[in-house]
Amino acid sequence: MEERTQEQEILIKQNDKPALKQSSPKQVRLAISAFYFMQGVCFASWASRIPTFKSSMGLNDAELGSILFALPAGQIITMFFSAKLTTHFGSKKMLRATAPLYAIALTFLALATTGWQLAAFLVLFGITGNLCNIALNTQGVAGENYYGKPIMSSFHGAWSIGNLTGALIALGLVNLKMGMYTHFWMIALISLTNVLFNAKKLLNYNKPDTVVEKTKFFTMPQGILVLLGVIAFCSMATEGTMFDWSAIYFEDVVKLPHNKAIIGYASFMFMMASGRFMGVYLIGKFGRKNLLQISGAIISLGMALAVIFPYLITAIFGFMLIGLGVSSIVPMVYSIAGNNKKVPAGKAITMVSSIGYFAFLFGPPLIGYISQLSSLRYSFGIISVFGLLIISLVTKIREIN
């Protein structure tokens, strides 16, 4: 029998059902990865349809940017109690409840016929998405400890593969002229099937509280968690720009036809997924600190290439570099935060992500407003600064090993 680590023994003891005791680290890893994958598919199904919403509703860049504000607003709303719920009920129960809600919330988006309706449904999509996200990343930290290796980046890689898969499905269905409502319900049913088959293999484990005294309902992040949050902010601002605007960039700046504009989003997601699966090897080779700095440099290089040379091949290559650059940053930040010795995993991840998610809150509208005043190309150029900021911030954190 393979020798178990101390962390694995703790996890096995805290599982309260005999079936879960029989789950091997590999089975647990695959189950958690499946949830990351489906969350990625759901998000990409929405993101890849943004150009359709823009054209069908006759929105300009500023109007679209204002509407996109609604999704991260919904995510921010839940930041104040998502960690509390995950800590109280456990990440497994939270995932079983919120993953289906997230998938169903996706289908509501297709019902929107006006900008305010789309904004309202995006708030709901953001609320369910963030509740699912905190539970999922808490489960990911537990799964990483249970497996005994730094595999957090592979979980986020599964999310990216799901994102790429969702984008490719959307590309095919757009060209087949399938309606959004049918498209979104097809994705929702697949997600519900995943919950049915894989939820039983999740871990009934939450990192024991290392803080003995009673904690407040919501605690402001301090020390290293603030810096990790700002690094996450820079990465998420870049990701948010690519999620919401990459297809539009290829349509408006690179001048691709509407039904092929998703290629920009897909090229970004392809390298983002590839980079996350290479994360374990890259962390071992360069170390977290060096890899974070290298990633910041690659983000700036890729964004500069796509902006200075906005042609099909150079833009695709630039977007691929951006995808590679952001691929490992958030997984590393979450892993560092979730394994700190002062704050429980769920709260630490929430503290960091609460800062990071402000990038999603302000990033999409900012891109739209700058684009309306000048050009979408110029607004993308401003985002390249975030890569340089990541390099600077990482040098200030001694605790990264």
TrEMBL record:
| Membrane topology, as annotated | Multi-pass membrane protein
Its principal location? membrane
**Keywords assigned by UniProt, alphabetized:** Membrane, Transmembrane, Transmembrane helix
The Major facilitator superfamily (MFS) profile domain covers which part of the protein? Answer: 28-399
Q: Which GO terms describe its molecular function?
A: transmembrane transporter activity
Mind telling me which residue stretches traverse the membrane in this protein?
28-47, 67-87, 94-112, 157-174, 224-250, 262-284, 291-309, 315-336, 348-370, 376-395
- Give the GO cellular component terms, alphabetically: membrane
Protein location: Membrane
What's the protein here called?
A: Fucose permease
Q: Source species, please? A: Pedobacter suwonensis
